[in-house]
Structures are given as C-alpha cells and as structure tokens.
Amino acid sequence: MSLSVSFSPVRTDADVAVVIDVLRFTTAAAIALVNGARSIIACATLEEARAHAPGVLLAGERNAVRPEGFDLGNSPLEFTKQAVQGRDIAWTTTNGTRALSEVLGSHPSSPLPPTSTPLSSLAPAPLPFQSDVVLASYVNLSAVVAFLAPRLEARSAVAIACSGREGSFALEDSACAGALVRRLRAALGDRLTMNDGARASACIDEAYGEDFARLFRDAQHGRFLRDHGFGADLDACGALDAAPVVPRWRDGRFVAG
Ligand code: MLT
To answer: Does residue 164 contact residue 95 with C-beta atoms inside 8 Å?
Structure first.
C-alpha cells in the first residue's frame, strides 16, 4: 500500500494516478460532472479542443481567460446545470490538462509524447499501465478519499500528481495533496508507505488546514486570479466537498465515477 506525491506531473506506473489542479481545472471539472455534464474530453491544445466541435461545449482558458470562440472559460461558477447538463465538454487549460498529458502519456518503457499528441489518442481502454486516473480538488476531497482507501487496502499503488504552475511548484495543489495524505493516513495508519513528497505535502496541509482563504491568498496563482477579477472563483475552489464526485478516465474521457 504505497502513496506518493509529486509536486509536478511525472511519469508513473502506479495503479491509480490522481491529478490535482485546485485553481481551477480539477475543481471546475468536478463541478461540471456533478451538474450533469456527460463527459470531459481533456485536450492539450486549443486546436485539439476545436477539432471536437461542433456538438460539444468548448471550455478552458489561456492566461485565465476564455479563448476566442469557446463557450465557457475555466471558472467553476460557469459550469452550472443549465450550462452543462447532458453535454460533452472539450476542455483545455494551461497547466491542468497539460499535466494530464504527462500522466496519461506516461509509461515506464516509452518516452513522453509530444504535447501536440491528442490526449484522447493516448488512452486506449483499458489503460495498459494504470487501472485508473482520477481528478481531485477540495470540492471532491472526501469522495476521492473514499475511492482511494479501499484501493490502497487492496495493495494498489497510488500516485498523486500536482499540476503545478508552468512547470513550478504550486502551493494550493501541494496543500490539497497533503489533505488527501492526511485523510488516507488517518484511515490506513502506519501500513501506508509514503514517499518524501507525501510527507512534505502533509506538512503544507498541516500549516493551512481548512483555511482556504489564507491558502489562496498566499498562493501565487490565487493572487493572480484575484488580480484578474476571478476572486469569486476562489470561494468556489475552497468549498470543501461541494461536488462529491470522482472524475474517472474512461475511453479517452473523464466521466462521473
Ligand atoms: C490551469 O490549468 O492552468 C488552470 O486551471 C488555470 C486557471 O486558473 O484558469
């Protein structure tokens, strides 16, 4: 039963990979699915997302802003029932969906794919090297813990990958990883084998607890979003367990697990 945390997306051969982008992709994705979106097609590039149209909603951001011609941006507040129920969403973001291309394209015996490789082409079902890839954030924290705990009990290896920010450490993703570690450690005790990243993330979680306002104030990307008029998104991203769903990778898309 092993649990690892990496502070930026890396290759993994773990049984379950968990990708975190608290601000804002994995938060908004959980909210979209809980509000009835049928699936999320994670795309590495704008072109890849546009190639899925028409018939899907286009969502995402570049520099936090909705790309031209897209139906939705990356704000969790946009993914209402009215906007997304029954719809497939082709979604591309700066860090979150790119992190996925690292994780989904990872295989110990193969090099990382170029970022232009369509994400949907990277994942034949069933995945040959990971039985599951799921998305986590604060809004679905308890649901993800409930999903992971029995898998760890069954001796699965779980790898948590923080999306980070343009290749660098992101405080909010690391704190959220630590919140998962804390809860899993409480459930499974000393039987859990952890890497140094898991232990370090637990220290960050301990420093902030559930004071998400302070966490997002301290985090560079939180300040960036507030300065660019997305302050209300921060409250949505800190709404603990508001979207109790586990987005799971199936047949090249994320669906409610
Ligand atoms: C990302 O994936 O880079 C983020 O979700 C950016 C954002 O906050 O829109």
So the answer is: yes
Using the atom order of ligand 1, give the atom closest to the CA of residue 24: 5
Please report, for the chain, the start and end positions of each structural domain, with discontinuous segments joined by +. 2-256
Tokens of 89: 């969403």
Of 25, 70, 138, the residue with max ligand 1 atoms within 8 A of its CB, to mutate for a pocket test, comes to: 25
Pairing type for strands 39-42 and 2-6 reads: unpaired
Residue-wise pLDDT for 164-190, tens only, equals 998 899 999 999 999 999 999 999 998
pLDDT digits (tens, 9 = 90+) for 47-96: 999 999 999 999 999 999 999 999 999 999 999 999 999 999 999 999 99
Query: pTM of this prediction?
Result: 0.92
What atom of ligand 1 comes closest to residue 28's alpha carbon? 5
Give yes or no for residue 162 CB within 6 A of ligand 1: no
- Please state which of the four CATH numbers 3.90.550.10, 3.40.50.2300, 2.60.200.40, 3.90.1560.10 is assigned to the domain occupying 2-256: 3.90.1560.10
